[in-house]
Amino acid sequence: MTLLFLEPSTRTSSSFAAAMQRLGGAVNHFTPATSSTVKGESLEDTVRCLQSYSDVLVVRHPEAGAAARVAATVDLANTESSQMLQPLDMLHRVDSDKQGDCASSQRALPHGQCVVMNAGDGAGEHPTQALVDVFTMLCEITDRKQPRLLPLWRFERLSGFTVTLLGDMKFGRTTHSLAQALGTVAGANSKDGDKEPALTVVYVAPSELAMPTDIITAAAAAATAGADAKANTKTKTNAKCDAVAASSPNGVTVSGLCQRIADISALTSAPKKGVPCLLAQTDVLYVTRVQKERFPSEDAWQQYQQSVSTTAASSSASAVAASQAAASSSSGYCITPELLKQGEAKPTLRVLHPLPRVDEVPPALEATEPLRAAYMRQMRWGLYLRMALIAEALGATDEIEALYARAMGQAE
Ligand code: NCD
């Protein structure tokens, strides 16, 4: 595996590396500063080089769409490789089989072929993080009415959930991918004639950093595709769901997915008498930091800071905990233990965060509420998820299952 990271990373790069090593593979850490990138080599040429030596290319890049460019380059190289390089690749295969590399004899991915994984492209997407996030939700469910007995990988475990996304949804690529992943989960859980949505997703962002309309539409389309896949139908459904409609108080439901837009003040203040506030309705609170590095200029960042401090100071008295904490944070929102208390959060509520954090989730939260602070365990779930992903991509799942069965046998 080559880690082609052209942007900083702690968790994603380390977890991919650890996952590959735990599966018995090797990792090449590409370092931009000592590479031919500094001589002006293009991304495409760098990729043509690295794919020659890798089965998996994990890419992180500051531009949205860069991962698709990398994948297109690798696709071309894979085609050429299967047409031109096969004899030599076959020799390599015989050679590695002799050395007992059983993975190479059984795997589905032919030699000389490379798969690409997007580890974050600018303000675009971060799909493997979305898988980590959904997996974390599945692993973290404790005593809801959904029985623990359901296997971990069954999406029904999330049936009827409300997932509240809080933070920078304009630039936050993890929220873009997660919204669509949750659409798929909702679609897979939806049943004809359901009165309640299979999943409710609420987008809570400072007004400058709202969820883009195209992501809301894509999440609705994912729900429709998920529902169609379950029903095994091939009908093409028009899943248009615009942001204006989604801002209605009850949201808009498409194929089991209800999407709503709410203000930060709604976290702790009830919309009507007798209706619990948003925090009290929430099962998973997914927080992200403001992506300062993606603001177009220092001025734009300063303006944002100005506007959040004014908004926090003028918040209504009913949202006092939210506004007090927000006033002292640079993000404009802050999930303190006091806020969760004021919002009467369910005892089972879990707080997730892709991390890194700035000040939107203070260390006091994990200190006083370690169970709720699922973001600390999310990193480990990420290791296992990425191990599974790599094994699947390389077609090595049978081997892994056999190893697992052997290990379980030994443990008994
Ligand atoms: C995120 C990212 O890089 O998009 N982090 C991660 O991969 N775990 C979130 C962020 O940087 O805020």
Structure description:
The protein has helices at residues 11-22, 43-51, 66-84, 86-98, 102-106, 127-140, 173-189, 213-231, 243-246, 278-281, 298-313, 320-327, 337-342, 363-368, 375-393, 397-411; strands at 2-5, 28-29, 56-61, 115-121, 161-166, 199-204, 252-254, 257-262, 284-287, 350-352. It has 412 residues and is α/β, with parallel strands linked by helices. A six-stranded mixed β-sheet has the order 7-8-6-5-9-10. It is globular, with a radius of gyration of 23 Å. Bound molecules: N-carbamoyl-L-aspartate.
Largest sheet: 6 strands, mixed
What sort of overall outline do the alpha carbons produce when their principal axes are compared?
Answer: globular
Which sequence of strands runs across the widest sheet?
7-8-6-5-9-10
Order of helices and strands: EHEHEHHHEHEHEHHEEHEHHHEHHH
What is the average of the pLDDT values?
88
Total number of beta strands:
10
Structural class: alpha/beta
Radius of gyration: 23 Å
Tell me the strand percentage band: 5-15%
Oligomer designation: single chain
Number of helices: 16
End-to-end distance: 34 Å
Low-confidence stretches: none
User: What ligands does this structure carry?
Assistant: N-carbamoyl-L-aspartate
